[in-house]
Task: structure prediction
Amino acid sequence: MRIVLASASPRRAQLLKQICAQFEVLPSHIEERRHADETPSAYVQRLALDKARYVAGQLDDTALVIGSDTLIDYAGEVMEKPLDKPHFKQMLGQLAGHVHQVRTAVAVVVTDGRQIKHEQVLEVVTDVELGAINDQQLEHYWNTGEPQDKAGGYAIQGGAARFVKRINGSYTAVVGLPLYETDQLLSAVANS
Result:
């Protein structure tokens, strides 16, 4: 079956290559805006499913589409990509010295080119504790350019690894695609 990753993220594509030899990448174009009373969990799951549904709707043949989204949840506050340097410093400053949750949802949608035949979404929550981060470190990290397009303003697989004191959960989920869970979803569809 044709497999399509509904993401422009090179990190997600690199991760998916570890469990799936052949797939296509078709970025989704959905509005990523949290609804008024939406919990962080409901929000990240909706976005993953919306991305997969959007791309599935663009296809005219049978395919399995994978959508994923990641956000930072700090005491119920959703931290997405930083708007600018002051916003980045505020976010990472809040996270420094504390535990937060990285919520990553992965969704699979199977389409026959006319309608959706199957869809499933699940969420993986990982606790991440960052150590203390001083202003000079924040400034240096921002200047690398890495934080600009990352949820919470940091990439665990990049320069921010030096700030990570402890992780409890899925490393690949924090990077952007929980491989174990994605593999389980793909296997379930293949065996159905």
